[in-house]
User: Fold this.
Amino acid sequence: MRAPEGWRDTQGTLAHELTLTGHGLHTGRRVNVRILPVPDATAAHGIVFRRVESGREVATLRADPALREAQPLCTMLRTSEGVSQGKGKGEGVRTVEHLLASLLVCGIDHAIVELDAEEVPILDGSAAPWIEAIRACGRTALAQPQRFIRVTKPVVVTDGVGSQRREMRIEPCERYEVSVRNDLKGFGDMHWEGALTPDVFAREIAPSRSYGRVKWALPAIAAGYVKRTPILRGARLSCTASIVGNRVIGGMRLPDEFVRHRVLDLVGDLALAGAPLLARVSALRPSHEMNWRLLSALLAERDAWTWAECDA
Assistant:
């Protein structure tokens, strides 16, 4: 097969090392990131996160659905136990979704993401800085043909009823298509639909920011301290579309920015599958948890998908 329009026929890695510094949305901690090329990649490599503290490696985590752990307002990967410290719960890397989406659409199938803290930096709240940095580094094509996950029959997951109903559906399609509907009091119903290509993602999805109501943030931060779970400790006007009443402080970047950010999170969460999709994904009020439930249900139903490889 040939890759759908806009996608690559071969797998790839970064042409040069990428470095960025920022702070975590939830931990608030400063973090330095190095993303390293993997020139001799194998099918077993993919995207690997490496936690380093004081020059010592404390955890290595593959971007693997089996390592996903439920967390408020983000997607987290966690090892079953600490690599070097023997901790029962293991080390983790949180808020991986924006970076995973950016690597996927930029054709970076293999890389090592090295961090000196537990959270990928939020930057400006969107994926645009990641897209810009990855493109500036360049891409090296590898010998392996690009693989896609071809969905062969519909899979649906639902939750709630009435106005709280959530539904996620994935079904066969010859390209990667997305349709997301969401609503938010004061802003009405929002809908984004289209074929997902790298250029469409970079132009229409990546600039959309994480968002939330200011009146909800302070109680959430306080509850996080009580539960010893970091939530929104690094939230700032510089990295979130902050809502007060029926307006966004400073205005929206894009029309229906909130639903576009839901698309961004969806693409990043589904990127844990390890390859772009040949499928149409439809989502009503998606969330990180519902994105995970859809991916988990798809992968568990082995006759619902197959690997599709581009011609050499």
Notes: The chain is about 20% helix and 35% strand. The domain at 10-309 is CATH 3.30.1700.10 (lpxc deacetylase, domain 1). The two ends are 9 Å apart (CA to CA). The CA atoms of residues 10 and 145 lie 4 Å apart.
